[in-house]
Amino acid sequence: MMRSAAMFRAVCLAIALSCSGLVVPSVARADWQKIQESGILKVAIYNEFLPFSDNGAGIDVELAAALSARLGLKLKLLPFTAGENLGDDLRNMVWKGHYLGYGPADVMLHVPVDNRLMAENDKVTIFAPYHVETVRLVRSAKTVPAFDGLDALAGKRIGVEKVSIAAMVMLGEGNGKFRDNVRIYDTATAAVVALKAGELDAVLANRSEIEAVMQGDAAFPLHDVSFQRLPRSGWAVGMAVRKDDVEIARRLQAAINEMAGNGALKAIFAKYGVQVVKP
């Protein structure tokens, strides 16, 4: 699920920001020193975002714990509900803090690593992509025995998550020819669970959300479906810190590089039935 309206724009090929070779100003080192003195890494994660974060569990929760441990710090999670757009989320959870006094965090997870988003939010650094998300179609092999394109879904019940890129493209496909058969769910997970229970014939959702529920069940094949407004290559997600926190970014980048290299990142994703896709 894309967490806010601005994420609809995060479908460009992601470009990782490397922190190597950066000159670290004294203020950045001072901020890192404050974190060290506190002994705590504050990490912002989204609420109700399975399989990544929900009720204190998920891929991003375990990633946050692993990152804090590698930095020699204790973890403090700052779960939050997505705002109207990603700019709101970055302001509230990264560089300013919410007007109600919640946040900011030292780092926010699951931020699209996208050039346009970076340009629109110059008070943060977006970096360290750790997964590439893609939208996939999952179908019931029983009720949709063959699939050679979207026309195979004519008259079939198709589930999508509300306010998601999957809903946007499915409702608009073919000038709305599937609209009457689209069923809207609060979450993609709920839609996939309904498919597994026989209440739907197919679901369009993020691949990670499908994999976490289906766990490789051969009765529900996945398909790469081409949509005009949706790049098949997907979009990378990474982290965000305040613009001046160069030293924190450098250390987090090194930690995620280590985890990607030694299999620790893959193991976290696999625990939830999801295959990590490297940027």
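(the above was protein one; protein two follows)
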Amino acid sequence: MAADERTTGSAGLAIGSGSRLTRAGVRGVLVLGALISLFPFYWLVVMASGTTEDIYQYPPKLIPGPHLLDNMRRVLDTVDFFGSLLNTVVAAVLGTALVLFFDSLAAFAFAKYEFPAKKLLFGALLITYMIPAQLSLVPQFVTMAAFGWAGSLKALIIPGAANAFGIFWMRQYAQNSLPDELLDAGRIDGAGFFRLYWQIALPLFRPALAFLGIFTFISIWNDYIWPLVVMIDPDKVTLQVALANLNVLYNTDYSLVMAGALMSVVPLILVFLVGARHFLRDLAAGATKM
């Protein structure tokens, strides 16, 4: 009996040590991955806080320089940063809100309702997602010009109010996270389509909506081609188009360009941190309930 107990204790100790080593290895890999992911942002700060000569220096400097505030001041003097920032914020916020509403509404119908040609319509929707966005630039601009929206923020917001990726993503999530029993209970209580969507579906969609909101906001914020084409008034451009003016053909000051890029990235980091926190919190809450 004593020998068996010693053998069992030794085996348990070995298993415990192995599990601790495994956890330590996983944490080490995660920390390494986080450092690799964060290094580009750190390198952006290094370049934005130096000079163009520092950027070309070899070996490169790995410590931030003293010129960050000066470079940011020069960006503000060169382009209308706050005016273009306001245009971008309005387009990104309103565009994201419309995408979240229409995509989740369409996904709810595709996932939980039967109607004629449902599969055909969903297949056609997926085909539109496969078409490169560049092919639609000319007809989309002609349409905006016909509506009289060329040069206004409506041309940045309305055309992207719904998209195939968002509908597909929300439909897949709705099929797995929205039980039919909840909808049947709501119908027994007399709830119609919009009440079922608003009071039952949307609260369960929050993790998927958080991801889609982050993805859509960043996409609209970083969009360059479509605002460049449709915003024909130079005084109403978005942030990415305005910052492109820093990159001149000859004698480009790359420290100025990097400072502008850093200033445009900071709001995105804040949005990501806020959205990711809600996304992870809702996922954890759902896992706990399960």
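Reviewer note on protein two: Residues 144 and 150 are 5 Å apart (CA to CA).
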